[in-house]
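Fill in residues.
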């Protein structure tokens, strides 16, 4: 009985083990819905043997075999045979291994995408879909890559090893063109040729159409293509293929520099080596395989939005167009294009690049986003003005038969951009951004341009201005400088350069110097005067020194340009301190010396507290001249008591801020009205004066209605106010 029990238990366990084993095997059997990995899917179809042979020879088999997820664009054997035949080859083994890696790798894109995700890739994921950008994230990273190359860095003469990243392939879907509101067939075939578009129900991938979409595999999707996808060059490589654009490329390469790539050096460099990326400073990095290289701080590989959306679009003028451009603008000043200063060349180049989404011909002149970095629309005839065109791995290329001239070359800044004698002023215009302001077609300007020699002889505050050329091979290494309080040369700030330049920007045309006229400059409360055939800044007028100017010939579309024999800076001296020394014959306020004595008697210009009752506000002073004051003293019209005198003298001062004045009054300016003086007569009540603009002159009306003429057409303008000459006293 015991043996029978043991036998029964043994049979039961054996049965149980056998049944469990069958269930376990059944549980882990391959489900019927699994299709196999990409390699198996292609191999089972027996029509991709050449492609698979290339995959294996290029070292990508394990990727297709399931090592990672992947989307594959697979050309069939007949398609691949046609590709080989067109290149006079009979076997894929005849393709050099490095070239084969590029070709095969260009058919493999990172990650697994079905058809809908390739038609409308959204880098933020399904939770953050951007309908306005449907289809516009058009580039995808492939496994096609160039080997590390070596270049000589022109800026330091050293050999640099350049790391080349994976190429991107454009996938152009009907969704892309629908979002832009342009015709897919017409715009695609503009680049790839007649009858090349076959993406009506999906997309084309670069030059190839799709004959079968998103065949599922365990580790991705397969798309069958009707052509071998030729690895696209970068825009730089495409330009270098044609001698027609060698001059454009030569100018562009003047801005070429190299940035150390720490991560690539760690991952891919030989021991002790450093790897670099090629860039072009503020210009698009058209030699870079990637349109984003970590500029914003996000790792390059992680910024899928910029990598897939952003394209470098280059509208490159051919050699003949650049030659004509040089002859028209620079030949009178430079022996050749390679001698032209880098700044005007940078501005010209920036007019021919757009870093945004890929640009198709139907968008030129219609899409408001397609504009230069200065906000100028990029417009040309996509038929008659274009000789060559291509879509590249990192953008598009349009070969033009003309130069798109920057506005700054034909506005009042034109002479500055082409003549090297105005180099420092040119860099000030650029650094301050004022060249953009001066490109307006809505405002008339006169630009007064000092030469380098005059600028370097200018005392700006307590320092002369200096120019540091830096390396002439590195754009941006130059610097306008001043000395700080310790005597150390430091960069002149952007704001300081803006203020300096603005002193030389006049609103309106100065057509002649005859008569007497006032012109506003861009800096508030600063002016240019013309009088009796001469020109003055506020400072030179106070010193009675005319500034010699000469018109610069040219058809500037928004005004006039003059060369100035000296800088025209506004007056830096103040009334409050100039009055203290008014008794000196050389003092610009000497004719008000007697008025100054009254102020001193009243204790109103004591050192350290001069005119303190104005609380630092800008002001107008209606100042009686010496003869008027002496006559008034003799007639007993001026109080002698100090307190009374103080209150009386405050009647001659008008605070700009307290009267909400935006400008000083000049004949014809229309700045007039009844204003509070600084003399208080009650609680929040002040003695008032009325100024009347009579068109050709100004007159004051005292509180009793007495009319007092402003004797001179031009006041003396200082840093803290303006002095107007009167020859009658105000009533006490």
């Amino acid at each position: 009985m015991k043996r029978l029990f043991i036998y029964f238990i043994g049979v039961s366990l054996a049965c149980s083990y056998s049944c469990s084993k069958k269930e376990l095997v059944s549980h882990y059997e391959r489900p019927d819905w699994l299709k196999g990995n990409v390699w198996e899917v292609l191999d089972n179809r027996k029509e991709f043997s050449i492609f698979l042979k290339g995959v294996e020879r290029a070292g990508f088999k394990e990727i297709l075999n399931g090592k990672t997820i992947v989307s594959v664009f697979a050309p069939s054997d007949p398609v691949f045979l046609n590709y080989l035949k067109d290149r006079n080859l009979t076997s894929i083994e005849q393709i050099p291994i490095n070239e084969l890696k590029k070709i095969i790798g260009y058919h493999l894109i990172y990650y697994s995408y079905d058809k809908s995700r390739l038609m409308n890739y959204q880098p933020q994921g399904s939770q953050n879909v951007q309908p306005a950008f449907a289809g516009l994230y058009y580039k995808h990273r492939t496994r096609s890559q160039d080997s590390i190359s070596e270049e000589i860095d022109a800026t330091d003469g050293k050999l640099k090893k350049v790391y080349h990243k994976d190429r991107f392939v454009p996938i152009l879907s009907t969704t892309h063109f629908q979002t832009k509101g342009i015709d897919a067939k017409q715009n695609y075939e503009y680049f790839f040729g007649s009858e090349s578009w076959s993406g009506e129900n999906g997309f084309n991938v670069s030059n190839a159409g799709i004959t079968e979409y998103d065949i599922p595999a365990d580790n991705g999707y397969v798309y069958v293509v009707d052509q071998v996808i030729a690895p696209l060059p970068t825009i730089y490589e495409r330009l270098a293929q044609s001698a027609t654009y060698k001059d454009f490329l030569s100018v562009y390469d003047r801005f070429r520099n190299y940035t150390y790539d720490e991560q690539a050096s760690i991952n891919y460099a030989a021991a002790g080596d450093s790897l670099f990326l090629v860039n072009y400073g503020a210009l698009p990095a058209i030699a870079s395989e990637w349109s984003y290289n970590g500029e914003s701080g996000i790792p390059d590989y992680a910024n899928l939005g910029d990598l897939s959306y952003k394209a470098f679009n280059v509208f490159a003028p051919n050699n003949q167009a650049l030659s004509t451009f040089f002859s028209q603008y620079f030949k009178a000043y430079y022996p050749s294009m390679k001698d032209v200063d880098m700044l005007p060349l940078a501005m010209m180049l920036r007019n021919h690049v757009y870093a945004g989404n890929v640009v198709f011909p139907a968008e030129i002149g219609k899409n408001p986003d397609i504009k230069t970095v200065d906000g100028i629309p990029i417009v040309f005839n996509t038929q008659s003005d274009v000789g060559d065109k291509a879509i590249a791995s990192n953008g598009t290329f349009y070969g033009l038969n003309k130069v798109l001239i920057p506005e700054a070359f034909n506005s009042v800044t034109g002479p500055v951009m082409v003549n090297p004698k105005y180099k420092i002023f040119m860099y000030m215009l650029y650094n301050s951004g004022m060249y953009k302001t001066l490109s307006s077609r809505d405002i008339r300007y006169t630009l007064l341009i000092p030469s380098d020699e005059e600028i370097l002889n200018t005392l700006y505050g307590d320092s002369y201005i200096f120019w540091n050329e830096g390396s002439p091979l590195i754009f941006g290494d130059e610097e306008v400088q001043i000395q700080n309080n310790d005597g150390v040369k430091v960069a002149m700030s952007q704001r300081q350069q803006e203020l300096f330049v603005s002193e030389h920007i006049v609103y309106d045309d100065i057509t002649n110097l005859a008569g007497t006229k006032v012109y506003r400059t861009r800096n508030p409360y600063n002016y240019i005067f013309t009088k009796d055939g001469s020109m003055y800044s506020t400072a030179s007028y106070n010193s009675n020194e005319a500034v010699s100017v000469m018109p610069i010939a040219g058809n500037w579309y928004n005004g006039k340009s003059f060369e100035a024999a000296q800088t025209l800076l506004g007056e830096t001296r103040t009334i409050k301190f100039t009055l203290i020394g008014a008794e000196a014959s050389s003092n610009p306020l000497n004719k008000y010396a007697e008025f100054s004595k009254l102020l001193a008697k009243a204790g109103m210009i004591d050192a350290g507290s001069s005119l303190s009752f104005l609380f630092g506000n800008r002001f107008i002073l209606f100042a009686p001249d010496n003869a008027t004051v002496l006559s008034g003293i003799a007639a007993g019209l001026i109080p002698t008591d100090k307190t009374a005198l103080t209150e009386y003298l405050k009647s001659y001062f008008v605070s700009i801020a307290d009267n909400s004045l935006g400008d000083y009054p000049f004949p014809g300016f229309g700045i007039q009205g009844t204003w509070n003086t600084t003399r208080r007569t009650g609680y929040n009540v002040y003695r008032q004066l009325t100024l009347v603009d009579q068109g050709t002159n100004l007159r004051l009306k005292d509180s009793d209605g007495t009319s007092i003429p402003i004797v001179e057409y031009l006041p003396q303008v200082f840093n803290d106010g303006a002095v107007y000459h009167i020859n009658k006293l105000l009533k006490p």
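The radius of gyration is 38 Å.
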